[in-house]
Amino acid sequence: MCRRSLFPLFSLLLTCVLSLAAARAAAPAAPSDLKVTPLGVNSFKVEWKDNSTDEVGFELRVGLKSKNDPPRFLLLPFPNPTETGAKSYTITTNNLAGRDLDFQMTAYKGLPKFEVFSAPTPIVVATAFPTSTFGAPTLLKATAVDELQIKFRWKDNSTSEYGYLLEYKKGSGKWHSLVQMAPGKTSFSLTASGPFVPSTTYSFRVRAYKQSPALIYTKYSETVTVTTKSFQAPTKLVATPAGEGAFSFKWKDNSSLDAGVEIQRKTGAGEFERYLKAAGVNLTRTDPLGNFLLDTDYQFRVRVYRLKGTKEVFSGYSNVFSARSAPMLSPTNFAGTVPNNTSVTLTWKGASAVANGYELQYREVGTTNFYTKQIYSRQESYTLTGFEPNKNYEFRIRNFSFFQTAKSAYSPLIQLHTKDSVVSNLNPLIFAGTQFLYQIQCSHVSSTLTNLAVTGLPAGLVFNPAYGTITGTLTAPGTSFSVVVTATFADGSKDVRTVTLKLSGKSPIVVQNFATVSVPVSTPATVSVIGKFSDPDTLSAARVTTTAGTFDIILFPEATPNTLNNFLDYVDANAFDNSFFHRTFNNSIVQGGCYKHTTADGFSRIGTFAPVVNEPGLSNVRGTIAMAKQSGNPNSATSQWFVNVMDNSDTSPLFLDSQNGGFTVFGRVPASGMQVLDAINTLPKGNYNDPTGAGIDPLEDVPINAATAPATLNPNELVKITTVGAAPILSYQVVSQDTAVATAAIISSDILITGVATGKTTVQVTATDLDGNSVSQNIAVTVP
Question: How many Cα atoms sit within 13 Å of 297 on the Cβ side?
């Protein structure tokens, strides 16, 4: 009961609140420029200017001419107004032939029954047509605009019609009602909403009607026939370069049926090919589109398509438009500094969005030919090395696209002057037990050398600052030694260089003679070779067994201790077992240490330890082994290594001794092992996607053990590394001079001597190093 009794009260309160809110709401701005045009004895076209953005609609007031305001005729709602502008409406009144009528307009807003009205426009007087003629329209014309649109025009011969009815038929078919139009019409345009299809003939007729009180029709106009146009092709195509490798397109759309567009392109004398197909109705332009070759002449054409069911039906082509793509942008802000005496550091801004590398060129000022260095990355700085001190050089740079084989113009030339430097050989050979003389030479041409200091000399060598020489006879154990030379010049610059003394060219030596051996016929004797021989230039070695053969590596622990320990950590972890050589770059290196493959696990990457600090110094000549690393990061070496199968020192185009801080050489492969690596280097090479599926590093120049490299990577044709382990520094052979007295055999590091008959003989023991150099000594043997 309580709820029922309260509801009428609540409704009343709500009505009051809404009424009060409506009453307080500000009225919309009043319309203006009211215009009324008689169309017949009972129809008028009303036009006005809308001056409000918050009205809900307009109130039209119409009455017979009097001195009073005309009464409301009807409300014209115009929902969701968003801007001011002109409005129009055609009204039908009673048959008031020849009578004068008053017209007035107001705007309103608010809920129904609570509207707030603007001030009214001034009253406008209009007179209905004086006669009530009701004749059939004549002179009907129909014009096809495109595949679907038809424009109609006729002569109006009636003043009392309520409107017009337009009818059509296809071919010899039946007539159908097409559209009902307002009175006073003499033209009409039928858009794509009609029932028409392209390239089809239709007939049309029109008649007027009124209601008095029943519907009454005039006779039909004459019948006209028109054929809709075929599916219309676009016209006025224009292609405009829009940055590197990009164009924007615009064209005129001439169709009402299109559901999308297709852009085609071609270069040179080739055939047109589809570049882009995009869905969309009445498309006339595109945003900039990429994937075009740089600085290249193109021809373009465009066509639209419509859907017939699910089938695409294409129009003809537009005009062909020719345009040249924009060239690659050149680098900007090219500058350089001289960090030391033989290097320059260059910086720039890439500018180009499509380049994937740079081409640096440099030459000594006054010379003609440039040297070229290509950088396959998007970095914006690079350090070039290998320059002569105290000279002027000039540099320039340009972008290139590796995939498009396109290049930009060069930057302007810049000049840099190198400083004074230590210029003597930084990798002199030293022989154990031989007098050593090394002269430190500097390029103090424009600056006076003020101080020369040497640290880290091994035992047996001394430095003479007066003459700048290192002399003496090496007595320290080891195979290579690093000596630091610091030259200070009068201009304040310093050059700090590491001179690597490498023990080389030394055959094995006899360290201790064998004692005489007495061996009974019944009991063999065992003699150890340990401590009897030594190889002065080899402290340790590794053996690499591959499916293409075995090679040894003579290691350099004194020169590169950190790098060597890093390499041996991977060896101890068996990380290289079941790996394969994945690169033979430019016939200059054979590289491994990245990927593994087994039948059980497939392809995988070798897990890496922390990167090792770079230890350059030894030269990347043929036969040396060095650590691979990331471009632009000298201290990034982990598991990957390579063997130099040609001279890649700073006298070569690769200049690996100084590139990227210098590549650390930590060992060398003897000549016998280089035969294996040369054979791998000459195998067919293939390019493949990342075999681990990560897609990060596509493989290039993979050596394939087959007649030709297949299109798809075959694991069975890879050159695999089966094991990597320690290698003996020396190998031994034994020969008994008289096997009738005693025989000899080598078992590991022991010689087994077996007495055969009473007598004396000698056993020759030969020690051979990994380079194939040998030394021998004899064991005197007595068989009692």
Answer: 5
d(CA 117, CA 22): 10
Tell me the pLDDT band of 341, cut-offs 50, 70 and 90: confident
What is the rounded CA–CA span in Å between residue 87 and residue 218?
Answer: 31
Q: Is pLDDT above 70 for 200? A: yes
Q: Is the pLDDT of residue 11 over 70?
A: no
Kind and range of the H or E run holding 181 = strand 176-181
DSSP for residue 591: E
Q: Which residues contact 490 (CB under 8 A, 6 or more apart)?
A: 447, 448, 449, 450
The answer to whether 147 touches 197, Cβ cutoff 8 Å, is yes
What is the value of pTM for the model shown? 0.48
Q: Which residue has the tokens 């041996």?
A: 568
> Helix (H, G, I), strand (E, B), or coil: what is residue 317?
coil
**Angle CA(232)–CA(234)–CA(235) in degrees, nearest 5?**
120
Radius of gyration of the chain (CA): 49
At 370 the pLDDT is: 93
Say how far apart CA 723 and CA 575 lie, in whole Å: 9
Element (H, E) at 678: helix 671-681
Full DSSP string of 332-367: EEEEEE--SSS-EEEEEE---SS--EEEEEEEETT-
- Give 417-473 pLDDT, tens digit per residue: 888 878 777 777 776 667 888 888 887 655 678 899 999 999 999 999 988 899 988
Provide the token pair at 143.
């014009």
Q: Which residues of 185-209 are buried (b: 16+ CB within 10 A; e: fewer)?
A: beebebeeebebebeeebbbbbbbb
Q: Which residue in this structure is represented by tokens 């002269």?
A: 439
Rounded percentage of the chain residues whose pLDDT exceeds 70? 94
Residue 756, SS3 per DSSP = coil
Tokens of 162: 């309520």
Report which of residues 694 and 21 the model is more confident about.
694
**Of all helices (H) and strands (E), which one includes residue 438?**
strand 435-439
Tokens of 121: 């426009």
Question: What is the three-class DSSP state of 237?
Answer: strand
Tokens standing for residue 506: 């030394």
DSSP state of 78: -
CB 416 within 8 A of CB 389: no
At residue 2 the predicted structure's pLDDT band, cuts being 50, 70 and 90, is very low
Distance of CA 113 to the CA centre of its chain: 65
Q: How far, in whole angstroms, is CA 739 from its chain's centroid?
A: 74
Strand partners, 305: 260, 314
Taking the C-alpha atoms of residue 156 and residue 95, their distance in angstroms, rounded to an integer, is 18
Burial category of 281 from C-beta neighbours within 10 Å (exposed 0-12, middle 13-18, buried 19 and up) = middle
End-to-end CA distance of the chain: 140
- Tens digits of per-residue pLDDT, 204-262? 999 999 887 788 999 999 999 999 888 899 999 999 999 898 999 999 999 888 899 99
In the predicted structure, residue 629 carries a pLDDT above the cut 70 = yes
